[in-house]
Design goal:
8 strands; eight-stranded parallel beta sheet; about 250 residues
Length: about 250
């Protein structure tokens, strides 16, 4: 039975991913801020065929609680096979004050790195594991509209890149994938105008589950992509955006 630790389990992407995995008989340790929502999600996953341990409520910005949370997950399930880090906050799209900037970096960036680091240590000891860090296409370039959010996601992406490299060189059996969703219609983006490039969280979830399946079917020496854009066309969209000269980029309204 696949054992999945989901941090940020109440997020739309995490919920849709868990629904699919529950149908495959996975076991879950759900982590989030709202115990009531976690309990409701757990009940739904059980109905779909999954097994769920007691949900774990935590303020993910409290880094001091991460090691205990990870220990509880490993003890409850007798180990973890897949970590999904999906928590985040809705960035302030206006002027980003000191308070907004530091909170955004802490919740969307530093806390994700903290969780991944704690689990990576455990994965190395058990000799296998898949770390899925959900960052964002926003991390590919700083935009005036939400630059601290962009910075936080860039932090997650660079950490994932380096951690993946190190674990592969160690021949640890552990893999790390940086998942970069594009514009996704979730409660966090409810106030934004939607267009043709937008997709629902179920589309992202299908891509995430595909990565898990690919990891589980890896043969020795096979390559698992370290960065995955969802949907895949965002790789080409962001390639263009990253290469817009700065003197032109600063004139855009992005």
């Amino acid at each position: 039975m696949r054992r999945v630790l989901v941090v940020g389990a109440t997020s739309a992407m995490a919920q849709e991913t868990a629904k699919i995995l529950a149908g495959e008989g996975s076991r879950f340790f759900l982590v989030g801020r709202d115990k009531t929502k976690l309990t409701d999600i757990a009940a739904d996953l059980v109905l779909r065929g999954g097994k769920v341990d007691e949900p774990y409520a935590i303020n993910i910005a409290n880094l001091n609680g991460h090691l205990d949370m990870v220990e509880r997950a490993f003890e409850a399930m007798g180990g973890v096979d897949v970590l999904i880090v999906a928590h985040g906050t809705n960035p302030d799209l206006g002027w980003q004050s000191w308070e907004v900037a530091t909170e955004t970096i802490m919740v969307n960036g530093v806390s994700a790195v903290s969780v991944a680091a704690a689990v990576a240590d455990r994965f190395v000891k058990q000799g296998h594991g898949l770390i899925l860090l959900i960052s964002s296409v926003a991390g590919d370039r700083g935009k005036q509209s939400n630059y601290t959010y962009c910075a936080a996601k860039a932090l997650v992406s660079r950490y994932a890149e380096g951690l993946r490299h190190r674990l592969i060189k160690m021949k640890s059996g552990v893999r790390v994938v940086d998942i970069k969703p594009g514009l996704t219609d979730t409660p966090l983006t409810a106030g934004l105008k939607k267009g043709l490039l937008w997709v629902g969280p179920a589309t992202i979830a299908t891509g995430i589950v595909g990565i898990i399946h690919r990891y589980e079917n890896l043969k020795v020496g096979q390559y698992l992509p370290g960065t995955v854009y969802l949907p895949s066309f965002w790789r080409f969209v962001m390639l263009v955006i990253r290469h817009i000269p700065d003197k032109l980029f600063i004139k855009t309204n992005l």
